[in-house]
Amino acid sequence: MGTKRPGVRSVVSPGVRDWAIAVGVAATLLVTGLSGQHSATDLDLLGYALLAAGGLALAARRRAPIPVLAVTGLCAVGYQAADFDVPAVAYLFAVYAAVRAGHRTLTIAASITMLAALPLAALASGLHDTGEAFAQARGALEIAWLIAAGAAGEALRQAERRAEEAERTREETARRRADEERLHIARELHDSLTHQISIIKVQSEVAVHVARKRGDQVPEALLAIQQAGREATRELRATLEALRDDDTAPPRGLDHVPELVERARSIGLDATLTIEGRRQDVPAAVERTAYRIVQESLTNIARHADAATASVRIDHRPDALAIRVDDDGKAAPGAAPVPGVGLLGMRERITALGGRLRAEPRGEGGFTVQAELPVEQTS
């Protein structure tokens, strides 16, 4: 979505514009009604009230186009019956708003009813000549203007729909290209690195096994190569999994967090999982990000923290999903965290969702990662 150009649209809200139009139409109707030189009888006062009410009702035409259509139509019939020969301008605005909102059938039915009701209202006002009553009704609701209002509303509705469709097509095209590029990178990494790393891993493990079988002392460098090969294999597998992660069918979410905790326990880390609050439906992007936060945090603890324990806490709040991962590792209070690739990627994911991240050493020792993700259904 592009940035809006500065101007009236970015300053004046739609609600203010609606009220300005409503007040303007009401004032126009009242001035037209007053020009008819009506006296201050109860019936005339009712006519003035209907003129004002019909115009002011337009303030709600965006939120409730059909009720506004009904109110403006009834007001027009009412002040015609009170002998106010005033054009149904407010009703034309309501027709435009209702058609723009997509209520074509109801608008046509209401307009046909109006065309039948206005002559009857004119007769009720005291006219005895049927032809004159129809002429007055035709003047109050000119069919050409009625069709024009409906056509304008339909044209704008179609234009808005085409603009939305074009925007959706652009987003889908961009998403598809990003998916294709991600899969291409995954294939390149798999073809170029997986085979070579597998050879290094297998050869180092064979060398360690042979040395131990012979009773020789295994060189530290060889053990380091063996460990690095295992780590590289795990990291490459995780990277390929992330690259192949499809937004349309997310393979990992909150339901898979216990697997991460169990995996951390399997490598000797005393990890616990606590879930608070009532589980609610959250957007798929929030689920994926929550999983990645826990995954990256536990991975960093296992690799760098030299920790014995770790705790994962997930709090389901009404408006947010809060995640906290603590460890008792070697991070010293007050030390600045080193912004590695994992932490930067985590921050980018959270920021993209409008969330907040706090990652720093704890006062009692160890490290904490705290994230808060909004859960409003906006993506």
What does this structure look like?
There is one protein chain. With 379 residues, this protein is an alpha+beta fold. It contains 12 helices and 5 strands. It has helices spanning 8-11, 14-34, 42-56, 65-81, 89-100, 104-124, 130-140, 143-214, 220-243, 257-266, 284-305, 341-352, and strands at 270-276, 309-316, 320-327, 356-361, 367-374. The protein has a 5-stranded mixed beta sheet with strand order 1-2-3-5-4, with helices on one face. Strand 4 and strand 5 form a beta hairpin. Helix 2 (14-34) packs antiparallel against helix 3 (42-56), helix 3 (42-56) packs antiparallel against helix 4 and helix 5 packs antiparallel against helix 6 (104-124). The protein is elongated, with a radius of gyration of 35 Å. Mean pLDDT is 78; it is low at 1-10.
The whole-angstrom Rg is: 35 Å
What strand line-up does the widest sheet have?
A: 1-2-3-5-4
Specify the biggest β-sheet: 5 strands, mixed
**Strand-pairing-aware structural class:** alpha+beta
Distance between the termini: 14 Å
Low-confidence region ranges: 1-10
Number of helices: 12
Summarize model confidence as the mean pLDDT: 78
Secondary-structure element string: HHHHHHHHHHEHEEHEE
Morphology: elongated
- For this structure, the quaternary state is single chain
Helix proportion range: 55-70%
The proportion of residues in beta strands is 5-15%
Number of strands: 5
